[in-house]
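Exam prep: given the inputs below (a chain plus pantoate), describe the expected output before reading on.
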Amino acid sequence: MKILRCMAQWRELRASLSGRIGFVPTMGALHQGHLSLLQASATDNDLTVLSIYVNATQFNDPNDFAKYPSTLEDDLAQAEAAGVDVVLLPDYEQMYADGFRYQLTENEFSTQLCGTDRPGHFTGVLTVVMKLLNLVRADRAYFGLKDYQQYTLIRDMCATFFMSTEIVGCNIVREADGLALSSRNRLLGLEARQLAGRFPRLLAEAASDEQACLSLQAAGMQVAYVKSVGQRRCGAVVVGEGTDAVRLIDNVPLDRPFDGRKVKEVHA
Ligand code: PAF
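Solution:
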């Protein structure tokens, strides 16, 4: 496995590569959800490229950025075991040589759901993903459907700008109690972790978005939003108090019963 910090070196290497390339962009703190993306990439492609880059421009809250878990050594060991061919570890200076003067903004869907209380978040996400996709020039890039709004915005951005990388949405991976895997789960205290396990089921089992909101609040979660988008109910909650508060997002299918760990989503 090659580990590259210098993107000029990567571009040189890229020019010499042939075969189908799969790309999994991440912010590190890898877990089974990321590993499932890497697995999908390894199955579909000849080479898999993983990027680990905690993208400052998508954090509207500097505390959230400061708290974001960093587990590089462990990530590299997991990447190697998962058969990753190249790991890219760019830094801010390389990713934002323009000082973030150039930005990619979507004006509709990105202002709803997570966009309501995270101003600028999706501009940061779309800008960095556009840069990463242009750098890697992969045949396919893999994103988890837990971040359903992010996945849709990225998929539509690629279509809008005639980008040639195919965007593949992958199944949500869940813990035994249904909690969707997320790098942020590491930040949950014991009590908050127990409460978080109730989030997907309460989201799924309510008769309406309003009912889901009330049930989540009654359970002790702070609700940022609950909103159905097509056949999916999306939600964001905060569990835990003060500096230990952790924001979690999830979405569940409305056209079939929620079955906890065995959630099957169709690759979009
Ligand atoms: O989902 C993430 O981890 C990030 O938003 C992404 C897509 C790697 C962009 O920084």
